[in-house]
Amino acid sequence: MKIHHVPCLEDNYSYLIIDESTKEAAVVDPVEPEKVLEVAQQQGALIKLVLTTHHHWDHAGGNEKLKQIVPGIKVYGGSKDNVKGCTDSVENGDKISLGADVNILALHTPCHTKGHISYYVNSKEGEDPAVFTGDTLFIAGCGKFFEGTAEQMYQSLCVTLGSLPKPTRVYCGHEYTVKNLQFALTIEPENVKIQQKLSWAQQQHQAGLPTIPSTIEDELETNPFIRVDLPEIQEKVSSQSAVDALREIRHRKDNWRG
């Protein structure tokens, strides 16, 4: 499979996932349909389905328009989210296939929204899988707890996503990486991996290049929100448990003016 990122709005990402043998494609969160269709055209790909991570307009806001442009297109979204234009609702564990070789697994990752879905995608052997995490897991960050609790975000981040194979490529919904890593250093100033990744991310940013994808392995080394099981992280934020640490780190990020 081939994955193309499509920058949208100010800092959003849509993604085109192409099954190389059939040229059939899925698009993740196509908020600006024309941009995604242009990339599909350049690649000679035919968009067959939409994977919506959650109901917020900057992710689901292009679904209706894309349905008008591509009649009969399937639009997937979480059953507990009121996703605009949804034709097929998905629950945790539902499977979707694309073309000949691409398999998509819906993972319910609630908290940012009640019905938020992350899509775990794999293809032929020898290719690293990918996960499209919307606004649940960002590079070195996580989404705000708009419709859920720290307990839910812990389950979504640290259990569901954190247990995916370490080489899994992470494609998130926004380009927030530099700010996230700057904040991560306020929690772990001595973490060399965070320092190195921040320096790299700043270079990417200056060159106008994206910082996606990350990997699950990378996140486990540099993302304070997914590292809350570590006693040293809990200690740094004076917390007695992983969930308490996650709640405290989110609270600090919400009030951080970096």
UniProtKB/TrEMBL annotation:
Species assigned in the record: Parasponia andersonii (Sponia andersonii)
One term of GO molecular function: hydroxyacylglutathione hydrolase activity
Broad class of enzyme this protein falls into: hydrolase
Catalysis: reaction(s): an S-(2-hydroxyacyl)glutathione + H2O = a 2-hydroxy carboxylate + glutathione + H(+)
Domain Metallo-beta-lactamase: 11-174
Name the UniProt record assigns to this protein: hydroxyacylglutathione hydrolase
Cofactor(s) annotated in UniProt: Zn(2+); Fe(3+); Fe(2+)
EC number: 3.1.2.6
Domain of life from the UniProt record: Eukaryota
SMART domains: Lactamase_B
Keyword Methyltransferase: no
Metabolic or biological pathway: Secondary metabolite metabolism; methylglyoxal degradation; (R)-lactate from methylglyoxal: step 2/2
CDD domains per the UniProt record, alphabetical: hydroxyacylglutathione_hydrolase_MBL-fold
Gene Ontology process terms (BP): methylglyoxal catabolic process to D-lactate via S-lactoyl-glutathione
Family, as annotated: Belongs to the metallo-beta-lactamase superfamily. Glyoxalase II family.
Keywords, sorted A to Z: Hydrolase, Metal-binding, Zinc
